[in-house]
Amino acid sequence: MLPRLCRRNRLDWKILSAVALICIIGYLFINYDKLKFSGNSEKLNFRQKRFFDYQASEASRSGHGEKGTAVLLQDEEKKLADSLFEKEAFNIIASDKIALDRSVVDVRDLRCKSITYPKDLPTASVIVIFHNEAWSPLLRTAHSVVNRSPPQYLHEVILLDDFSDRPELGEKLRKYVAETWPDQIVKIVRTKERSGLIRARLAGAKAATGDVLIFLDSHCEANTGWLEPLLARIKEDRTAVLCPEIDLIDKNTLQYGGTGSYSVGGFWWSLHFSWRPIPEHEQKRRKSSVDPIRLEPLLARIADDRTSVLCPIVDAIDANTLEYSRNSGYNVGGFSWSLHFTWRDVPDEDKKSRKYTDPVRSPTMAGGLFAASREFFFEIGAYDDGMDVWGGENLEISFRTWMCGGKLEFIPCSRVGHIFRSSHPYTFPGNKDTHGINSMRLAEVWMDEYKRLFYFHRRDLLGQDYGDISERKSLRQKLNCKSFKWFLDNVYPEKFIPDENVHAWGMVRNPASNLCLDTLQKDEKTIFDIGLFSCQNGASANEVFSLSLNDELRREEGCMGFSGSDGTRIPLEPCNNSSRQKWKHDKDSGTITHTASGMCLDKADEMSNGFVVAKKCNGKDSQKWTFEHYLDL
Ligand code: LR7
Ligand code: MN
């Protein structure tokens, strides 16, 4: 009995030890990567090496799309790309041909490269949200961040999967991430249901533990040196919410192109985002924007130098009309050997020196690419988690940042490319107009009485259910945020308000015909002729015109300009304060007169096919107009 038992026990021990050994080996095997990086310094060394190896290899890379070049497809590939274009809203075949860690051109201004940033910068959590993003752009985003962020500042990259159901974004993605980044710098977090991009970003922000949150869309490429200027600015001012300069990655060729336009964000009263040039007040505020242009070789550069001789930029005053027009050419002087003075283009080097490195204040952001101190992001209310799928959150966070004590800036030295796709390659559950409803929430909470201007455009939304906004309202109260009027007056003073500080506004009616000026639904980012349509009695934003204190007959961005020849149509063109765009209205006689030419706005005859024209004044009914509202200013 006894020996048998012993024997059996011995066997048990053997089995047990074997199992234990297998377990230990298994554990070591599974956790090899973790154990390999058990110390922080080992992790950092590994990351440093990866970072420097990539930098070293970048210049010598060759292949499709390297250095950010275009991929041009032919024959079968082109056909295939075309057939998939609708689904992906960009050229997936071209993207798939490009290395996931391709090189790009460093499009920064030369001056950016000479800036040295403090060594002890805060750390960043980069959050890339995605729903059913295609494989190659998603991973190219992650690679670009890891490869171009100095490891000591990159705390983590969170790929926030908003409940995607493409098969390759499941196990295959997990495996790729684990194998490619064994140090676990890249993490995947998945939502439990389709959350929409706003709640997805919130989930990402909650999971993040770095000092600074940086959000990116899932089809971006971070460029050289993108991270340091963002972190340095937040270190300097924790209330600054920052956008990189967003470069265009072409949706057809995947070419990485520098924008170089240095635009800032604005908005339409329909609550769509718009790009606009840096306004004059901001150009003046920024120190480096007043740099003189060197007039070499005739004149030496000045600044605070008593030995320098300065010229203003010479604008043109037309000899015939005395119209003053801005010289946007910024020429410098040269000479010919016959010793005549000549104008010539600003030499390349000086053009570059006019591109600046300072932050540019912006009223709004596009939404997808921005950085904020993690603490500050939550302090000012993160996001409105009542917003669904897509749209509106970009203006909400913009208005809120400014109104509640922060500031919004573009950082010219931080460059990130983004594929601007032609449509949304994902579903909108329930087919809801999420931009409309989200915008209602933002208008109701943040825009005070100015929400009326949104509803001008979206009468259809009036009375629709936008959910509960009480938490957001009490947030605004708790933070003691300023009014929307304060925002307009101080942050966006150039924003045109159609029904304030104008002589008159509303429908411009020709009583005899009961026709009104009308944009005929044309896209106001283009130039088009103003038409006539039966008056809609306030039901159509297409018929809202204003007579500004500046004597313009205008819309939000466009002014009616007239060339002066009898009987021609009148285009709506970008307002530029020129005499083409000045009109006077006489309330008693009803005339609207083009000041420079003396011609009258005329309903015209059937020949004009529903377009308004200007003609010699004749006192007839076709030249009589009334505005819906007169402010008597
Ligand atoms: O349900 C969704 N869940 C998601 O996670 C829907 C989308 N998403 C992800 C999506 O995979 C993508 O990574 O959210 C991100 C943004 O969606 P896009 O790329 O379809 O949006 P967009 O680039 O057309 O739109 C811009 O405006 C949006 C308004 O809600 C967001 O703020 C986007 O981030 C924003 N993109 C940019 O600002 C990039 C610069 C372009 C400009 C102008
Ligand atoms: Mn996008």
Our Rg estimate from Cα atoms comes to 30 Å
Please give the count of helices: 18
Quote the beta fraction: 15-25%
Q: What is the mean predicted local confidence, pLDDT?
A: 90
- CATH-assigned fold name of the domain at 502-630: Trefoil (Acidic Fibroblast Growth Factor, subunit A)
By secondary-structure content and strand pairing, the structural class works out as alpha+beta
Reported CATH architecture of the domain at 502-630? Trefoil
GO biological process, one term: protein O-linked glycosylation
Organism: Pinctada imbricata
Keywords: Disulfide bond, Glycosyltransferase, Golgi apparatus, Lectin, Manganese, Membrane, Signal-anchor, Transferase, Transmembrane, Transmembrane helix
EC number: 2.4.1.-
Provide key terms for this protein.
633 residues; alpha+beta; Trefoil (Acidic Fibroblast Growth Factor, subunit A); 18 helices; 29 strands; 21% strand; binds ligand LR7; binds manganese (II) ion
Write the layout of secondary structure elements.
Blueprint: H1 2-30, H2 32-36, H3 40-58, H4 75-88, H5 92-97, H6 110-113, E1 124-130, H7 135-148, E2 154-161, H8 171-180, E3 186-190, H9 196-207, E4 212-216, E5 220-222, H10 227-236, E6 240-249, E7 256-257, E8 263-267, E9 273-277, H11 280-285, E10 316-317, E11 324-325, E12 332-335, E13 341-344, H12 348-353, E14 360-361, E15 370-373, H13 374-379, H14 393-403, E16 407-419, H15 434-446, H16 451-457, H17 470-478, H18 484-490, E17 502-510, E18 515-518, E19 528-529, E20 531-534, E21 545-548, E22 553-554, E23 558-560, E24 571-574, E25 583-585, E26 592-594, E27 600-602, E28 613-615, E29 626-630
Parallel strand pairs: 1-2, 1-4, 2-3, 6-16
Antiparallel strand pairs: 4-15, 5-16, 6-7, 8-9, 10-11, 12-13, 14-16, 17-18, 17-21, 17-29, 18-20, 19-24, 21-22, 23-24, 25-26, 27-28
Helix pairs in contact: 14-15
The structure holds ligand LR7 and manganese (II) ion (MN).
